[in-house]
Task: structure prediction
Amino acid sequence: MRVNAGTVLGFYSAAIMFDPAFLTGETWGFGGAPVEHVETHAAHVFLVADRAFKIKKDVSLPYLDFSTVEKRRAVLEEELAINRSFAPDIYIDVIEVRGEPVLRMRRFPAQALLSRQMAQGRIDGQLARRLARMIAEAHAAAPRRETRGVDIMMGLGAQLSNAFTSSADLFQPAETLEFHALYEEALKRMRPLLNDRSARGLVRRCHGDMHSGNIIVEDGEPKLFDAIEFSEKIATVDVLYDLAFLLMDLWWHGEHATANAVLNHYLHLRRSEEDLSGLALLPLFLSTRAGVRALVTADLVHELPVSGSLRQRGMALDCFRASIAFLKPRPPILICVGGLSGTGKSTLAAALAPMVGAAPGALHIRSDIERKVLAGVDEFQRLPADSYSRQASFAVYETCIARAAKALAAGHSVVLDAVFSRDSERQHAAAVARQHKTGFLGLWLEAPAESLTARVAARGADASDATPGVVAQQRTYDLGRLDWERIDASGSPAETLSRVRQRLPYRHAAPA
Result:
């Protein structure tokens, strides 16, 4: 049965008939085995034993055409080729079953989905770093495309505005007008940057659908699957827009710390490609991703009876309003966290970063990491003493400040953690904030000497090379005039964070 339907950026999910034999294990070579059936907007998936079999629906939509067996076979071959680059152990081959082309895959447990692990609170800092590494590697390998970034975003913005307008039963006209005005203004400001990134090779043939439902975690390692295969155009995007889908998804589900950690580690891994100017695009990219999710959900609402669509209606409206909120980020702020080794600077900075500025929170700059980058070594490799000379330390601070300045210039908040034992270092940081007309908050952490020594001695693998001897040496420093906020850091990290939160001038404006 063929269906011709029209929708903008959304998915048609009405039931499409298929051969009833597909619901028997014998058809798939597993006699007597139960068959689970999963229906998506354009496919049927049959789960049998340790295999998954996907067939495309006989549909023709504005953004895809599976209306003949030949077209369905071609798109499945394309899906196999594209996804093997992400998950070669999942995608096996394309076969033919009862006259229909079928993509054969290894089945994985539903609990392996990142969305399931997120719902169970099982995403930790280590997984966040691995997610960032997975995405950075995918973007490094993605083929470059010559499409102008501004053309991509103009097209998406126009489709969103038109679709919101045509769904006045869900989206208030006044709010749709606000979205359109904010989007157009952001697009006008970002036009040069979007095109500059295109010229630098940052528009690529990406995964295109990188959210938590298309990532699995096996043995602690995340893997992408189910990339966009039916449209080269939809999958050709700025790499930060590709990343923004996962960031928006994590943020939407309250995983603020994870979203912030993924962004920070991604930018760390992609230093040679990302100069931090791209941070200015995050509000536009996150807004667009939230808007697309609003429309996908709205399409589902329109296919359900009113009595059975209340949850989806609420979600569509919340996503729509999130798309507006992302376009109204708080102004940037520079927060500097100083103190002797062992005061918990990096722990506090990492906890603060998701709480301030535009979603998904501030750029976290850590002097210990920058020192290792300058030395060209892994962050956990211990450096010799001469790497901590006065000249070497000056270079580290200059690098930290320069990196902070780039992020602030992009309108993005920064949390910078370093010892900041010299008054000149503290004054320089404050001057950079004034130069970029941003807010500034200087925090000086303090704790008893025995606490600092014990904390440093108890550290495992860490970017810091501080030892109890370093703590003893630091305690002899002449700190000079200290006009930053003094914070008692003698208690737990949670207690220190609680004290600091009371001093924050504002936090993120995006929805929780």
Notes: The two ends are 43 Å apart (CA to CA). Residues 301 and 418 are 50 Å apart (CA to CA). The mean pLDDT is 91. The longest helix spans residues 173-199.
